C-alpha cells in the first residue's frame, strides 16, 4: 500500500501531472467560453444548432490552442507549422465535425422531447459539452506525445514548470559553480 502512495506522490509531482493539470484547466476555460458562445448563439436563435456549434468551436479553439501551447506545454516563439499547427487544428476540426453532428442530432431529438425552448437549449448545450468531454483524454495524449512533444529542442528554461525566474536563475548559477566552492 505504501508503494502505491509513494508512486502516486511521485506522479503528482511529475511534469506529466503538472501539464495535464494545466491542460485540464485550459480545457475547462475553453469549454466555458465555447458553451457560453453556443448557448448565446443558439438560445437567442441567432444561429442554427450547427452554426452555433461552429461559432463556439472557433472561439473556444483559439483559447484552447493559446492556453495549451503557452501555459500547459510552455512553448514560446514561432510554432512549427507541420509539427504543431497542422495536427492541432486537424484534431480541432474533428471535434468541430463531431460536435456539429451531435448538436444537430440533439436538436432533432429535443424538438420531439421538449415543448419549450429552455429545456431544448439545455439539452443541446449538454450534448455539445459532452462531445468535447469524450475527446478530452484522447486529445491530451495526442498533444502530449506528438504535437507538443520535445523533439530535441528544449523549451525556454523554466517554461511550463511552475518555476519562477529567481529559482531558475539560482539553479543555473549553482550548476555553473564547482561543487568544491559551494557552501
UniProtKB/TrEMBL annotation:
<dbReference type="Pfam" id="PF04138">
    <property type="entry name" value="GtrA_DPMS_TM"/>
</dbReference>
<keyword id="KW-0472">Membrane</keyword>
<feature type="transmembrane region" description="Helical">
    <location>
        <begin position="54"/>
        <end position="73"/>
    </location>
</feature>
<feature type="transmembrane region" description="Helical">
    <location>
        <begin position="20"/>
        <end position="42"/>
    </location>
</feature>
<keyword id="KW-0812">Transmembrane</keyword>
<dbReference type="InterPro" id="IPR007267">
    <property type="entry name" value="GtrA_DPMS_TM"/>
</dbReference>
<feature type="domain" description="GtrA/DPMS transmembrane">
    <location>
        <begin position="22"/>
        <end position="148"/>
    </location>
</feature>
<dbReference type="GO" id="GO:0016020">
    <property type="term" value="C:membrane"/>
</dbReference>
<protein>
    <submittedName>
        <fullName>Putative flippase GtrA (Transmembrane translocase of bactoprenol-linked glucose)</fullName>
    </submittedName>
</protein>
<dbReference type="GO" id="GO:0000271">
    <property type="term" value="P:polysaccharide biosynthetic process"/>
</dbReference>
<feature type="region of interest" description="Disordered">
    <location>
        <begin position="153"/>
        <end position="183"/>
    </location>
</feature>
<feature type="transmembrane region" description="Helical">
    <location>
        <begin position="85"/>
        <end position="109"/>
    </location>
</feature>
<keyword id="KW-1133">Transmembrane helix</keyword>
<feature type="transmembrane region" description="Helical">
    <location>
        <begin position="121"/>
        <end position="147"/>
    </location>
</feature>
Amino acid at each position: 500500500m505504501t508503494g502505491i502512495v509513494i508512486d502516486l506522490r511521485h506522479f503528482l509531482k511529475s511534469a506529466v501531472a503538472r501539464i495535464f493539470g494545466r491542460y485540464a484547466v485550459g480545457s475547462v476555460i475553453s469549454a466555458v467560453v465555447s458553451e457560453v458562445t453556443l448557448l448565446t448563439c443558439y438560445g437567442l436563435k441567432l444561429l442554427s444548432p450547427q452554426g452555433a456549434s461552429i461559432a463556439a468551436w472557433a472561439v473556444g479553439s483559439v483559447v484552447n490552442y493559446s492556453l495549451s501551447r503557452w501555459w500547459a506545454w510552455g512553448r514560446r516563439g514561432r510554432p512549427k507549422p507541420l509539427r504543431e499547427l497542422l495536427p492541432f487544428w486537424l484534431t480541432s476540426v474533428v471535434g468541430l465535425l463531431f460536435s456539429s453532428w451531435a448538436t444537430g442530432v440533439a436538436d432533432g431529438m429535443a424538438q420531439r422531447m421538449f415543448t419549450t425552448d429552455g429545456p431544448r437549449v439545455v439539452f443541446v448545450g449538454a450534448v455539445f459539452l459532452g462531445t468535447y468531454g469524450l475527446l478530452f483524454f484522447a486529445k491530451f495524449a495526442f498533444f502530449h506525445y506528438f504535437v507538443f512533444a520535445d523533439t530535441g529542442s528544449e523549451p525556454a528554461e523554466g517554461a511550463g514548470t511552475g518555476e519562477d525566474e529567481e529559482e531558475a536563475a539560482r539553479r543555473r548559477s549553482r550548476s555553473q559553480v564547482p561543487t568544491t566552492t559551494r557552501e
